[in-house]
Write a structure and sequence with these properties.
11 strands, 45% helix, single chain, alpha+beta, two-stranded antiparallel ribbon, Butyryl-Coa Dehydrogenase, subunit A, domain 1, seven-stranded mixed beta sheet, Butyryl-CoA Dehydrogenase, subunit A, domain 2
Amino acid sequence: MANFFNDNESLKFHLSHEMMKEIIQLKERNYADYGKYDDAPKDYEDALDNYEKVMEIVGEITGEILAPNAESVDQEGPKIVNNEVVYARGTQENHEALRDAGLYGMSLPREFGGLNFSYVPYVMAAEIVSRGDCGFANIWGLQDCAETIYEYASKEIKDEFLPKINQGFTCSMDLTEPDAGSDLQAVQLKATWDEKSNCWRLNGVKRFITNGDADIKLVLARSEEGTNDGRGLSYFVYDRKHKAVTIRRIENKLGIKGSPTGELVFNNAPAQLVGDRKLGLIKYVMSLMNGARLGVGAQSVGLSEAAYREAFKYAQEREQFGKPIHNFAGVYEMLANMRAKTDAIR
């Protein structure tokens, strides 16, 4: 059976880093959860054993399900049916397999159904998933939105949304607009307070939104009248159950087609404020992007690992002048450089 964790000693090495003992102790708050939850470790060795077992599960699911599905997912892709995004068959299988294994909300505290893992095993898992299907890593990795909710949202919002993450509810961060990409302070999607309904209402367009039809959406919107910079932006959480967002289209991308990238129209959509007004971009999105950068970095390493293994396999099978081409110095040097660079960026 293929296991994308057990077959990668270079990746496994990072769990034995000398800093792991301190990292785990801080994340576990000196193992304060022991006795309160069945999966809470009692000490460092117990926690590390948990990490290794979960990594083996991620590796097995990726090797046995995600990787075999990857080609058909890219060929089939998602589609819009009755204003809902329907994943490709393989994408749905991937999602259900990781959901049923409890691998959504890995870094969330146990009180919300998470595993309370540090970022080291979470990023390792992201690399493994990316090696199997780089497009699906976008969908799975957006569970990182839960960290922003946990860090900044009110207790009521946390209690409403965070337990759903482990149940497999998907997430998205809705930032980009037709005229606001890298320049996010130009965001114009409008947020207005609805006194009668006691909620905020969102109106406007978002474009190039990864996993755009997600169940839980974090939306950057302009809440302050008369502003035109980042200080007028706030952050909101929207629940897909309200069905107040129209999916205008799914982008036809060059690659990672299994990950739906959508254009969305918010039609008086009810939403809740995350944290304080005016801090949406300058504090909350900046925090979210720190985690997203780690995820994208892990995605690149996983893709590089997959590319190296494909190249090495081909170089062993392809023969010229009576021997495999990896025996020729020029090819051997290319493979060695690929191996070294992949381990270095990890």
